[in-house]
TrEMBL record:
Upper lineage: Eukaryota, Metazoa, Chordata, Craniata, Vertebrata
Keyword Magnesium set for record: no
Top-level taxon of the source organism: Eukaryota
Transmembrane segments: 77-98
Coiled coil segments of this chain: none
UniProt keyword annotations, A-Z: Electron transport, Membrane, Mitochondrion, Mitochondrion inner membrane, Respiratory chain, Transit peptide, Transmembrane, Transmembrane helix, Transport
Region described as Disordered: 22-51
Broad class of where this protein is predominantly found: mitochondrion
Listed name of the protein: NADH dehydrogenase [ubiquinone] 1 beta subcomplex subunit 11, mitochondrial
One Pfam family this sequence matches: ESSS
Length: 142
């Protein structure tokens, strides 16, 4: 049994569910015999025309196929491609997107201008950001 636990892993609870759950009454029997045994689950209602719900055939039905083995493999492949590959490729795509808003370029350009101004002996920011001779001011009102 331990090899089945190791080999089937998460499918092991399904192996335990193959027999219906039963409850044994703790009250005294009403007549001769042992304690009463009752089913905890009602029997599954049969569908018309002999059709059986996939959940009755396969309690671990994932919706990919009516065959339990194909259903499980399709589920595994779907989740692998849908989650693992999407996260890896999606994360790589987002990581290598170009500089949004050119923030990194603006920082490099500012550092280059600061180094050039320090090398020329100029202040980092001048007293007049714009050339005052090129600024047109409105006329004074009296």
């Amino acid at each position: 049994m331990l090899t089945r636990v190791w080999r089937f892993g998460p499918c092991f609870p399904r192996l335990l569910r193959q027999t219906p759950n039963r409850c044994v009454s703790q009250s005294k029997p009403s007549g001769a015999g042992s304690a009463a045994v009752t089913e905890t689950h009602a029997p599954a209602a049969s569908a018309s025309h002999g059709e059986v719900s996939p959940y009755v055939k396969n309690p671990d039905f994932h919706g990919f196929s009516s065959d339990p083995v194909v259903d499980e493999w399709n589920m595994r492949i779907g989740f692998f491609l849908g989650i693992s590959v999407a996260l890896v490729i999606g994360g790589t795509f987002i990581h290598y997107l170009p500089d949004h808003g050119m923030r990194q370029w603006a920082r490099r350009e500012a550092e280059r201008v600061i180094q050039q101004r320090e090398r020329d002996g100029l202040p980092l920011i001048g007293e007049n950001y714009y050339d005052p001779s090129k600024i047109i001011l409105p006329a004074k009102e009296q």
